[in-house]
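#dry-run=false #mode=assembly
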Amino acid sequence: MLRRLLFAVLIVGACRSDGRTVGRSAQRIVSLLPSFTEILFAIGAGDRVVGRTTWCDYPPAALDVASVGDGIPPNIEAVAARKPDLVVLYNSGPNVTAAQQLERIGIRTVLLDLNRLEDLGPATRKLGQLTGLEQRAESLAAAMDSLVLHRPPPSSTNLAFVVWDNPPIIIGAGSYLSQLAALAGARNVFDDITAPSAQVSLETIAARNPHWIAVLADSAVPPAFAQRREWRAVPAVRAGQFLMLPGSLFGRPGPRSAEAVRQLKALLAQ
Amino acid sequence: MKWALLFLVAGVALVASVLVGPAGLQSDIVWNLRAPRTVLAFLVGGSLGAAGASLQALVRNPLADPFLLGLSGGAGLGAVLAIALHLPGPWALPIAAFIGALAALVLVYRLGRIGGGVLDPRILLLGGVAVGAFAAAITTAIVSLADAAELRNAFLWLWGGLSSASWDAVLLIGVYAPIPLLVLLGASRPLDLLALGEEPARYLGADVEQVKRRVYLAASLLTAAAVAVSGVIGFVGLIVPHLARGTWGHRHRALLPASFIGGGALLAIADTLARTVVAPRELPVGVVTALIGVPVFALLLRRWTVA
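#status=ok
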């Protein structure tokens, strides 16, 4: 009897979630991460995106979409004002709270992981499923998966990603950027640090002596710390070996990750 | 004997700090990075120790520390503004932090003299807390409103660290710090008298108003320079003076130098640990000063109260 009741509850539950998620594809989407915006446009759901963050600057058509703020943390009222039937959020602590609040006022949400290259395929498939554009999503996701399945080439050079100079913060093996570098043939000298990023002492950077210092920046001018005396103890800084990588292309995993690898390879070959 | 011990500890701390590090003993790294960092740690720690000791005497409050009087809030606001406005140049951040600290200093000083010409330590304390909180609120508002994602890193800088150490910074502090330090040392006798209360100090011949002004300005200028080169490093300026007072007593002629050397040694040790314990990663040095300082402090507090 009890088992039957449980079964009935399960059936009812399944029907309800079916009615909510699969039955109807999303028509008004708010995307709260630049990568999600890029994926939605790439799978042909760009015309259904009705809200984006201030950081969502690609493709150019995304700039015509209304912005709901910087998204950290999401402004619930600004998001709700776009009257979305789906809000796509990056899976992190503050966003989980925001998603719960949105659900409470009847707006469907989805929280997706997107930290590393291997998260791209699943995220894209999920977005395809939610928009009813499974086929286009699948072909994009397959291309993304091939990036990860691809064995990285043997590294011919090495680099350190410097995120901040005082205190020095670098990118570790846990980050998407470390994967990008490996695919482009450059070993991250801090790939023994498993965290996505970490504070290290300047002398460690100097001792590991990376051939390149990679910096996410939209200008081609070397960063201000290049002129600081203590940083000049790092040979690559002294030699001006900076890789200035535009954040819009390099700073986020997305449909253009393969393009980012190509461009990084070209920069390293100089 | 206790002086010999203090010098020994400080000497060992300095030597160990130069010799120990994640990068081994490469001459270039030792000379250009580790040696200036060690010296800067000693100078900053010493400045905070001496500033803390004299401020505790000035406001006659054992809880006073160099950052209680609003300087950290002002420095933080300056630093965040420098980052938000993209001020150019390698020294933009420390200069902006220093100016921010000076602005807070002037504001608190004006507040402290609000009841006429005399500097009231209680109002000084309240003014410091108020100005600090106000500056922190503006800082947070800028960080949350500005677009620059890097602003969040400004908070990391605020937590303190010596990674910007270079011989330039050492030279700067080495020339600057002795002036306020000598002013404080010169005020040691009146500071002793001030401990008895302002009235008795006056009867015993101290020019109380002038001493208060001088000590406040000297200690604050010392702290402003320390915060400009190394952010807000907590606990050194609070705990070291108490440790020194427990050993050297309340005479400032001995207390101030002991606080200076003790603070310098503590920060040099803490920074060595910060660099090496979790290498290749690094801990914020303020975390280490608290982790060492607080247990030692608790232990001594127990001994003093039992005895």
